[in-house]
UniProtKB/TrEMBL annotation:
Protein name from the UniProt record: Cupin domain-containing protein
Organism of derivation: Maribacter arenosus
Domain of life of the organism encoding this protein: Bacteria
ChrR-like cupin domain residues: 7-109
């Protein structure tokens, strides 16, 4: 097991954006950086997302809830407007869509895999 704190630091400025592709579907205009990969679940429960202007993620469910923090820009979660500095915590099985007109960067913590509805 790693014991140095440096082994757990992720510098997102030194990693490349990857297109968001889930179950073979490419979400155009949305890019991701993994902050923490969980080997047991084979997924990243902590991610950094970048939405280009006009990008949207479809209506979906969060079985384990989620935490979202808007780093830059603004977006809509359903019809609720969020901007830089806003934080959203949703309970388990919360369903919604995300879209942006101007673009944004978001920090997400999603303990369970998202389900497209």
């Amino acid at each position: 097991m790693k014991t140095a704190i440096e082994d757990y630091i992720v510098n997102i400025n030194k990693t490349d954006w990857q297109p968001l592709i889930e179950n073979g579907h490419h979400y155009k205009g949305i890019f991701v950086k993994s902050l923490r990969y969980d080997e047991a679940s084979k997924r990243s429960p902590s991610i950094f997302l970048k939405f280009e202007p006009g990008a949207a993620y479809p209506y979906h469910n969060h079985p384990g809830g989620e935490e979202l923090f808007v780093i830059t820009g603004d977006c809509y979660v359903n019809e609720s407007f969020l901007e830089a500095g806003d934080y959203l915590h949703t309970p388990k099985n919360c369903k919604h869509a995300v879209r942006t007109e101007n673009g944004c960067e978001l920090l997400f913590m999603i303990p369970e895999e998202v389900e497209i509805v």
